[in-house]
Amino acid sequence: MDFDYLVRKAMEAKEKAYAPYSGFRVGAAVQTASGRVYTGCNVENSSFGATICAERTAIAKAVSEGESKIVAVAVSSDGENITYPCGICRQVISEFGNDETKVICSNKNGQYKIYEMKDILPHAFAGEDFMTKNKGMNT
Ligand code: THU
Description:
Blueprint: H1 3-14, E1 26-32, E2 37-41, H2 54-64, E3 70-77, H3 87-96, E4 102-106, E5 112-116, H4 117-120, H5 127-131
Parallel strand pairs: 3-4
Antiparallel strand pairs: 1-2, 1-3, 4-5
The structure holds tetrahydrodeoxyuridine.
Tetrahydrodeoxyuridine binds at residues 19, 22, 24, 26, 42, 44, 51, 53-55, 85-86, 89.
Cofactor: Zn(2+)
Active site: 55 (proton donor)
Family: Belongs to the cytidine and deoxycytidylate deaminase family.
């Protein structure tokens, strides 16, 4: 896993951000189990709640191409401070990742820190939590 490369791809993806409301551009790069990398940016909306974060844009691209196992996600932004995925994105990463999925959080200069999902979303809620309790939903 090449963390420098993933952060570079996230920084590149940030250039495509559609962020006229916050002015805060975010880019993400998702590496899947096949080794492929999918990028995304934040896509804002005048109805703010309809905004999609960069991480979820990238994940939707990967999943819609048939790639649903995420091994790493890099995030980059315009901030001086390192940017971490929001709570909703952590939940979405956990849907397609696992405890060891790497989350590489960087700032606008490309300085980064590496975490694992188990550290930034401990005790994640997962499908198995209710699928096993509701036999009717087991497939
Ligand atoms: N944003 C992301 O794209 N990813 C995150 O993890 C944090 C927030 C975006 C959403 C919105 O367009 C802007 O940053 C300000 O919240």
